[in-house]
Design goal:
438 residues, alpha/beta, Alpha-Beta Plaits, TIM Barrel, eight-stranded mixed barrel, elongated, binds ligand C2E, binds magnesium ion
Length: 438
């Protein structure tokens, strides 16, 4: 027999992280999963992870977990339908059950609404904190019919969601492997940061007008004891999903500035570019982290360029604008990385206080063979100059490409032609050799 749907007045009543709300929710899930199975209906489970909940709690007085969770539930409630139910599973996780859906995309829409609802800073007793939520989604009948398996699938999706820019992920059948890999690595990464096991390599940039070395991009390297080199994008993904991107950014910045300070003693003063991930850029504390690191190593701020990608800026233009303005106020330079692959509009370029456009290597590699790529590179260089910005071409592998970029008036080049990314020792030697040879 199919159990009846709950009366409307008992919905959305989970208020605290207490056991009873959680138990109620799980019973509701059992019941509605059975309904869905018996009627060929559809149901979704959303697992919302509240990364950085510790910072929110640090601001709160009184019983922290209960207050935090009630603030979060208050935010989420208006994003849901009256028949949906939610409860905290722990201090860092909220589970939402969406019964009787007519289409799987409704679950995604609900996830997006929840993310939006939690994206604004949460204020309490004069303090504010920004949560970094991510949402895993699993559905009946696509992923599982059994509630326990459904929750497991949502949990796997939640971990993957943390690595995705959009902040949500719908469980796919081959996700479990990805999640397992991540699961082991995230613990190792925290250890690696603490144990100083990561490294920064430096890829030089050369001035196309004078041929002089002027700058270098800092690129993260992690040689895992058993898995070998882990690509930096994966490392950043793990750090974002586990909420330690702030520590990673701090670590990279300090490593770069320590190196800059040491090189400066030998009269070597390149400008260093540091990549910032999307989630690092929305961390309200980033400007302080940058200023603190600059102060510690006594490096002039204009010797540092922070690279951000286009999608980061467009995601939440107002917030990005405020953050970039604060970073600019700290005196550092700003660059838009992988320019051309996103959706920048002229309006953004006019408004954002950037100093440099980096032409994506995709277009640079096609410069001599593809007329479309040639036009894009030409347009980006012109665009940069019209806005009085530097144009940097990355991924330059051939002399003919370099020569064409020089002819087109591009300002800087970076790529295997000039040098592969180098360890700090090799970079120092490379730079000295370049300066001595000139
Ligand atoms: P990106 O910032 O666009 O960095 C350029 C990538 O192109 C680097 O890959 C570099 O090694 C590679 N590259 C440079 N010259 C050439 C070339 O001539 N040909 C080819 N085929 N490739 C070239 P890498 O080091 O694997 O980094 C990949 C991405 O990982 C970076 O893209 C950046 O988005 C991210 N990343 C690296 N380090 C960090 C970091 O410290 N923090 C953050 N948030 N992201 C990082
Ligand atoms: Mg970059
Ligand atoms: Mg790039």
């Amino acid at each position: 027999m199919i159990p009846p749907a709950p009366p409307a007045d008992t919905t959305l009543r989970a208020q605290s992280p207490g056991d009873s709300a959680r138990e109620d929710l799980l019973r509701f899930l059992d019941r509605e999963a059975a309904v869905a199975q018996a009627t060929d209906g559809r149901l979704a489970v959303l697992l919302v992870e509240l990364r950085r909940v510790d910072r929110l709690q640090a601001l709160l007085k009184g019983p922290p977990a209960a207050i935090t969770i009630s603030l979060v539930l208050e935010r989420l409630r208006p994003a849901l339908r009256p028949d949906d139910r939610l409860a905290a599973l722990s201090e860092e996780q909220v589970c939402i059950v969406l019964p009787r859906l007519s289409h799987p995309t409704q679950a995604v829409l609900a996830a997006v609404k929840c993310l939006r609802a939690l994206d604004r800073p949460i204020a309490h007793e004069g303090g504010t904190a920004v949560l970094r939520p991510c949402v895993g989604i699993a559905t009946v009948p696509e992923n599982a019919a059994d509630p326990a398996k459904l929750l497991m699938a949502a949990d796997v999706a939640r971990r993957i969601a943390g690595t995705r820019e959009e902040g949500y992920h719908v469980f796919q059948s081959d996700d479990s492997i990805e999640a397992e890999v991540y699961h082991g690595l995230d613990i190792d990464l925290q250890r690696a940061i603490r144990a100083n096991e990561l490294e920064v390599h430096y890829q030089p940039q050369v001035d196309l007008h004078t041929g002089a070395p002027v700058a270098a991009e800092a690129l993260l390297r992690w040689r895992h004891p058993t898995s070998g080199q882990i690509p930096p994008a994966t490392v950043v993904g793990i750090a974002e999903s586990t909420g330690i991107i702030g520590s990673l950014t701090f670590w990279v910045l300090n490593a770069v500035l320590r190196n800059a300070a040491s090189l400066a003693k030998e009269g070597i003063t390149p400008r260093f570019s540091v990549n910032l991930s999307t989630r690092a850029l929305v961390d309200a504390e980033l400007p302080e982290i940058v200023e603190q690191a600059l102060g510690t190593w006594n490096v002039p701020p204009e010797h540092i360029t922070l690279e951000i990608t286009e999608s980061t800026m467009i995601g939440d233009a107002e917030r990005s604008m405020a953050m970039l303005t604060r970073l600019k106020g700290a005196g550092v330079q700003l660059s838009i990385d992988d320019f051309g692959t996103g959706y920048s509009s002229l309006a953004y370029l006019k408004r954002f206080p950037v100093d440099e456009l980096k032409i994506d290597k995709l277009f640079v590699s096609g410069l001599l063979s593809d007329r479309g790529d040639h036009k894009i590179v030409r347009s980006v260089i012109d665009l940069a100059h019209n806005f009085e910005l530097r144009a940097v071409a990355e991924g330059v592998e051939e002399e003919a490409t370099r020569a064409e970029l020089a002819r087109m008036g591009c300002d800087l080049v970076q790529g295997y032609l000039v040098s592969r990314p180098l360890s700090d020792r090799d970079f120092r030697a490379w730079w000295s050799a370049m300066e001595n040879g000139r």
